[in-house]
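Researcher: I've been going back and forth with a colleague about how Globin-sensor domain-containing protein might be arranged in three dimensions. Neither of us has a model we trust, so I'd like an independent prediction. The organism is Thermosynechococcus sichuanensis E542, in case that matters for your notes. Sequence below.
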Amino acid sequence: MAIDPNAFMATMVRRVQLTDADKAALTEAAAWGKEIAPAMAEIFYDYLGRDEEMNTILNAVEGRVHRLRQTFVDWFAEMFTGMDNWGKSYAERRWKIGLIHVRVGIGPQHVVPAMAVVVNAVRQKLRQDSKSEALGDALGKICMIDLAFIEQAYFEVSSQAVLQETGWTQALFQRLIATGAASM
Ligand code: HEM
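Model: Here is an independent structure prediction for Globin-sensor domain-containing protein. You can compare it with whatever you and your colleague have in mind.
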């Protein structure tokens, strides 16, 4: 494991500024989150299915879409409950979700717009159901934390693979990245 998911979670909570008030708003709305999760999954997989490349990934394995609908529902509901108050279990679960996406070849170009779809769908539903702006803000923050886990997993797996294969040090790798970026 390249990073400590729990430490990463703590850093993200601080940087995204997920406060105790945000956590309270989420847990208070946990029943609502569970209720709307299947509709959110519907919107999400409908969106992925309309993109040729993502649709191919989704249908590459028999029964995958069906299973994913349920895992999405669980994922969505967990944002509200925080599992263990957004602690170790939450962090390890998010890290695992990140690694699974890396394994199936899903990168930032897929995940970032997909999370935007989730955020927009939730915003619409919040308005329809006359939910507070505070809840919307809290949801926006936790979605960004979850997104950061998937993005970080992509970076960690890629860099660990290069380091293992080449035996380079972290410092040399960073220098090569900086040089490469400068020449682009
Ligand atoms: C908002 C971003 C996303 C969220 C929250 C999300 C959520 C999840 C969850 C919870 C899992 C299950 C992990 C497990 O089995 O433990 C999963 C797996 C997966 N997701 Fe996503 N996902 C996102 C973006 C995407 C995108 C953009 C694609 C593109 C096609 C995708 C395709 C997949 C695939 C193929 C798997 C693995 C299925 C398997 O194990 O057969 N996901 N995702």
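Researcher: What would you highlight for our discussion?
Model: I'd start with this: The radius of gyration is 18 Å. After that, consider the following. The mean pLDDT is 95.
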